[in-house]
Amino acid sequence: MSENVVRWGILGAANFARQHMAPAIHAAHGAELVALATSRPEKAAGFQSFAPGLRVHDSYEALLSDPEVDAIYVPLPNHMHVDWSIRALEAGKAVLCEKPVGMDVAEIDRLIGARNSAGLLAAEAFMVVHHPQWQRARDLLAEGAVGRLGHVNAAFSYFNDDMGNIRNQAATGGGGLRDIGVYVMGSVRFATGQEPEGLEYSRVQIQDGVDLFADMGFRFEGFTYQAYTSIRMANRQEVHFHGDKGVMSLSCPFNAGVFDQAELRISYPDQRVVVERFPGVNQYVLQVEAFGRSLLTGVPYAWTLEQARGTQAMIDTVLASA
Fold this sequence. Notes:
- This protein is an alpha/beta fold and 322 residues long.
- The protein has two domains: 120 residues, Rossmann fold, CATH 3.40.50; 154 residues, Dihydrodipicolinate Reductase, domain 2.
- It is built from nine helices and 14 strands.
- Strand 9 and strand 10 form a beta hairpin.
- Helix 1 packs across helix 8, helix 4 packs parallel to helix 5 and helix 7 crosses helix 9.
């Protein structure tokens, strides 16, 4: 690793990696996409179309042994995240692993132990914390822009009934809570800086071991929280922070630039409305650049494994209640 560039390898040719993270690594300042592990050459072609010098390894082990790779991005199915992240750390590579980083809190604890033993950076790829929409929301809440926060509600849904898709398979860690519950829970914890005090209620619809719908309420110090996720409902995503002086609403808070344009709106009782928009922001590029800065300079990374563990604890609580 040079003092200015992090050389990246990708563990597996997942569609999400090809469509979003690989182009982001390729475009990010201070990053170079140098290697990919896949046993299927036809999948590698999609990556080589924009990174023609990409080295392709035919096994995950070969990529981890590549001395010209500094950091590994892990987009594997959920149930494989922790084991392969630990193997990457043991191989001397920094790790950015897709969310959810673990299947439960105990798995994340194993990964935290491996990170501490290796003395390397390991993090969950929770990209929204790098987007200026969420950073602005956090700052406005801290400044009291909506007054005393009383209630937060969030929603994230999409429709997927393809039973061959890993999101619909219990064995691979499928279900809405693991796939998108991380967003409605983790983003609110990030913006408020608070952890839940306990679960108030949950209603979960499970089919073949996979949660299709979950409606949940948690209590936080000073405010209540309600959210739902679904992988069998039409696309929706939004978050609202309701205070005694105003309501802050985030449209397209999770898939900015894909679902819609990211927008932050504060509505006040006197009919004033303040709107901020964030066009043209690629949160995946910002995530890669932030990871690189942390790796190269030691500046704190915005989303630690401990923070990811807090979200997983909420997910574990809701799943246990079901």
